[in-house]
Amino acid sequence: MFDLIIVGAGPAGIAAAYEAKKSGLDYLVIEKGLIGNTIYSYPVGLTVFSTTNELEFEPSGLKPAREKPTREELLSYYVRFVLDNELNIQTEELVESVTRDSPPYEGGVAATSSLDGADGVVLSRGKQNISDTNTDTENHPPATAESTRGFMTREPVPLVLAQKSASVARTSQPRNEGSFRVVTDKDTYKAKNILFAIGAMDYPRKLDVPGEDLPHVFDHFRETYPWVKKKALIVGGGNSAGEAALFLAQEGCETTLAIFRDDWENTDPKQGCIKYWVKEPLEEELKEHCLNLFFLGKVIEIREGEIELENENGDRVVLHNDVVFVLIGSDADLSMLKGLGVETEQGKYGEVPVYDPETFETNVPGVYVAGHFTNQRHIKGAIDGGRSAIKAIMDKNLAKQAAPPQSS
Ligand SMILES: Cc1cc2nc3c(=O)[nH]c(=O)nc-3n(C[C@H](O)[C@H](O)[C@H](O)COP(=O)(O)OP(=O)(O)OC[C@H]3O[C@@H](n4cnc5c(N)ncnc54)[C@H](O)[C@@H]3O)c2cc1C
What are 54-65's pLDDT values in tens digits? Predict the structure, then answer.
């Protein structure tokens, strides 16, 4: 039985794991990809837009060669941090479902529960289809055989809990006090609290046009070299699209950025404009005729070797091209949260879970959220959210321990 399972090892999950370890919680992080998987997926050689103090878990750990770190420097820092602090992170393990085994325990006393009688809902992972170009965010079945791993009372008992709550009914109901069952593609675990730190990269947004599934159409830009001396079209209005267009134009690709005029003319960072240090060099590339700008009305169809577009005046145009990058943002998979009963609402960038902005706990006791799929869209906010959730869990533990034992 873990005190806490953290789903996702991005900045939010790593920050939470570090705090959990320092607090003496018995925790586990489960990550479907690699440590810092989203950062790993950034374009090769990208310089991030945040300053080091916004990206670090502890001051002065990140030492980039220039003012701001590259993708590689940031990734190396995060991986090193996890290894040096011996954080308990299991990678390449997908969390498939989280269900509630029993009502959350109150006042330090657990509700009795039976695994066979779990009341949670196991959800299959549904696919969304959202077409929205104005984003810049960077922007199962349950396992049938349950292993004993994660179900046994684990040692050592968390230090803080053990020291401060000798009288709490841990020994009287050790096996039933947990509230959540976490099923992965490798194992099954139990935990008292769950922190979702899953980011918002699960569902790249789609244009919903014919040809979008062709092999030369990508929802993700990785690097320029395969496209040198080729014709590339980028669809999108945010920083990711701007960065991809810039990389490609600078490296000798015949590049067209198809963008709504409003997005191109947007200069408000709060409205997700292309950052000025991307926009200015893009304008230079335009002047030097290394980049074409296409003011988009809509994309009509993508075909082998060409794409049909409508411009802002409604005129149809066919452009010949070798590769299309559709970089219009992505959305989180909220299905596990919703299955647990977590309420959601419409946030600035899409649907977000409802949570207490101080504790990051949702309406379902014991279920916490942090990071990019909340209202915190940047790494600093993700780190702060992860930390806040751990503080809240610790505060709750202390409050439970201070509460008088419930009479049976
Ligand atoms: C190209 C690009 C550049 C960016 N530059 C910046 C920048 O300069 N500064 C900045 O502040 N932000 C930047 N961002 C945004 C930044 O990457 C996010 O804000 C940050 O990654 C959020 O951290 P997170 O921990 O919330 O989510 P993520 O980093 O996305 O981590 C979530 C993790 O959860 C894992 N996961 C998801 N579902 C499951 C599951 N079911 N089971 C197990 N694991 C799961 C994912 O694999 C992932 O590793 C950029 C984004 C992009 C795309």
Answer: 999 999 999 999
- For ligand 1, say whether the CB of 49 is within 6 Å of any of its atoms: yes
Q: Is the CB of 294 under 6 A from ligand 1?
A: no
How far apart, in whole angstroms, are the C-alpha atoms of residue 239 and residue 257?
A: 12
Query: From CA 35, how far away is CA 196, in angstroms rounded?
Result: 15
Q: Looking at the CA of residue 200, tell me the nearest atom of ligand 1.
A: 30
Q: What is the pLDDT of residue 404?
A: 75
User: What is each CA distance from 295 to 130, 157, 264, 278, 311, in whole angstroms?
Assistant: 21, 61, 9, 18, 6
Residue range 145-160: average pLDDT?
A: 29
Whether 152 has a pLDDT exceeding 50, the answer reads no
pLDDT (0 to 100) of residue 368: 98
For residue 290, is it left (φ>0), alpha (ψ between -120 and 50) or beta? alpha
Q: Using the 8-state DSSP alphabet, how is residue 407 labeled?
A: P
Task: Measure Cα distances from 227 to 222, 233, 259, 283, 323 in Å.
Answer: 11, 11, 20, 21, 8
- Nearest CA residue ID for atom 20, ligand 1: 379
What is the pLDDT of the chain when averaged over all its residues?
A: 84
Judge contact between 324 and 231, C-beta under 8 A. Answer: no
pTM (predicted TM-score): 0.83
Report the nearest-CA residue for atom 26 of ligand 1. 371
Give me ligand 1 centre to Cα 307, in Å.
31
Measured in angstroms, how far is the CA atom of residue 263 from the centroid of ligand 1? 23
**What percentage of the chain reaches a pLDDT higher than 70?**
80
Query: By percentage, how much of the chain surpasses pLDDT 90?
Result: 75
Ligand 1, residues 7, 37, 38, 90: which to mutate, most atoms within 8 A of Cβ? 38
10: Cβ below 6 Å to ligand 1?
yes
Q: Calculate helix-pair angle for 379-402, 11-23, nearest 10 degrees.
A: 30
- Count of beta carbons in the 10 Å neighbourhood of residue 76: 14
Q: Which H or E run includes 257?
A: strand 254-259
Q: Which class for 275: exposed (0-12), middle (13-18), buried (19 or more C-beta within 10 A)?
A: middle
Is the pLDDT score of 109 beyond 90?
no
What is the 104 CA–ligand 1 centroid distance (Å)?
29
